[in-house]
Amino acid sequence: MDIGIYIVSKKIVILGSTGSVGTQCLEIIRNFPDDFSVLGLSAGKNFKLLKEQVQEFSPKYFFIENYDQNIEEAKKISLEEMVTLEDVDLVVMALSGSIGLVPVHEAVNSGKTIILANKESMVMAGKMLVEKAKLTGATILPVDSEPSAIWQCMMGERKNISKLILTASGGSLRNYSINELKNISPELVLKHPTWNMGAKITVDSATLLNKAFEVIESSNLFSVPLNNIDVLIHPESIVHSLVEFIDGNLKALLSIPDMRFPIQYAMFFPDRKANVELPECNLAELGSLNFSPVIPGKYPLFDMAMSIAQNNNSLMSVLVGADEAVVDLFINGKIKFLDMNYLIEKTIQSHQSIKNPSLEDIKNASEWGFNNVHQLIDI
Ligand SMILES: NC(=O)c1ccc[n+]([C@@H]2O[C@H](COP(=O)([O-])OP(=O)(O)OC[C@H]3O[C@@H](n4cnc5c(N)ncnc54)[C@H](OP(=O)(O)O)[C@@H]3O)[C@@H](O)[C@H]2O)c1
To answer: Which residue from 23, 217, 261, 340 puts its CA 20 to 30 A from 29's CA?
Structure first.
């Protein structure tokens, strides 16, 4: 009898394969070609890169937003079809923004294992998605470095947790005064001091709205009340987050800031794999790590999101939609950095909120938020 070791590769689809998280996910697959087989890839506009990826990884399926573009080697299907393919083992949700909501919902509905980078879906509909996952058997594995750190620190320790502490680099503008922010350029905002990420999340890091999103995401994922989650500014981004237990002990997860760590962890979970491509964390070389509280009032969008998040209503989805609009307008030089606060606040104030919103209400609220910003500036 022939006895051998057979490696069963996981069949994976990546929504947003041309983005920052998506390309890093493919990099890990390049490092471990026997462990994964790519079944589907998708992009919004970057047809050239998607085509190259299809030629390299030979998926059966692809999706691109533009309906006229085709790739001979694979079949074009919708994002919803891609996440519900019967033989898919892992669904990577690396779309940026509210566009992720419906595919994440579909994947949860069909009981898939989801590697979730798209935090906006968790912010808008986290409670609904987690509840549904319990019914369908879907598993949501976080990829964001902070929720991933919390997840790893909580392993085997679901009880006796008193607090989660999320760290924040403070973004590209952490050392600027309000006065200096008035005329800050998109180029400067897009230069994140520690992480190399997509454009939207980099701007959201500068306003600290990204951190509010992570707090809400973590509250939903780990069932920890918002009041039991703190944020600490940690400029080096080495400690990714901490869990405090009732006996006063703290557990933290440390690594060099590189998204491949949390992505790889989720892709191999529950195993860990050595990867020589990933940087070593030499604490002696780093020397010191710094922490400070978030200064109240310094980040108006963070404060606004945290106060809205206390209620389960449609305002959070309005904020997500409005944020997408203002970030895009700012990056394209149509509004100034501080206009983002005003436009989001105005939009929130004029929305009639809906309590316990349905999926449709959430989608509509986010679209309403997006459109309202454009109406306010008449573009
Ligand atoms: N980047 C990070 O390090 C990081 C860290 C933690 C969490 N996250 C979260 O991960 C998510 C992705 O972030 P990212 O930085 O990777 O974003 P990104 O670089 O902007 O990539 C977004 C991906 O989504 C695709 N896409 C955009 N609009 C689409 C549409 N309408 N239909 C289909 N596909 C569309 C893009 O395609 P094109 O390339 O063709 O435009 C791209 O593949 C976000 O929710 C972010 O908050 C990111």
So the answer is: 217
Residue pair 90/115 in contact by the 8 Å Cβ criterion? yes
pTM for this predicted structure: 0.95
Q: Where are the domains of the chain?
A: 10-142, 144-257+280-307, 311-379
For residue 6, give every residue at least 6 positions away whose Cβ sits within 8 Å of its Cβ, in sequence order, or none.
none
Structure tokens at 239: 């400690």
Helix (H) or strand (E) holding 141: strand 139-142
Confidence class of residue 3 from pLDDT cuts 50, 70 and 90?
low
Residue nearest to atom 8 of ligand 1 (CA): 117
Class of domain 311-379: mainly alpha
Pocket test for ligand 1, best of 197, 211, 265, 370 (most atoms within 8 A of CB): 197
Taking the centre of ligand 1 as the mean of its atom positions, its distance from the CA of residue 288, in whole angstroms, is: 33
Residue-wise pLDDT for 228-259, tens only, equals: 999 999 999 999 999 999 999 999 999 999 99
What separation in Å is there between the alpha carbon of 251 and the centre of ligand 1?
Answer: 30
- Give distance in angstroms: CA of 320 to centre of ligand 1: 15
Do strands 36-43 and 61-64 pair parallel, antiparallel, or not at all (unpaired)?
Answer: parallel
Mutational pocket test of ligand 1: of 96, 101, 122, 144, the residue with most ligand atoms within 8 Å of the beta carbon: 96
CATH 3.30.420.40 at 10-142, yes or no: no
> In this predicted structure, what is the pLDDT of residue 311?
86
Q: What is the pLDDT of residues 64-79, one digit of tens each?
A: 998 788 899 999 999 9
Give CA separation, 78 vs 97, 167, 339, in Å: 17, 36, 36
- Residue whose pair of structure tokens reads 């394969």 in the numeric block: 17
Residue 329 makes CB contacts below 8 A (sequence gap 6+) with 335, 339, 373, 377, 379
Classified as helix, coil or strand, 116 is: strand
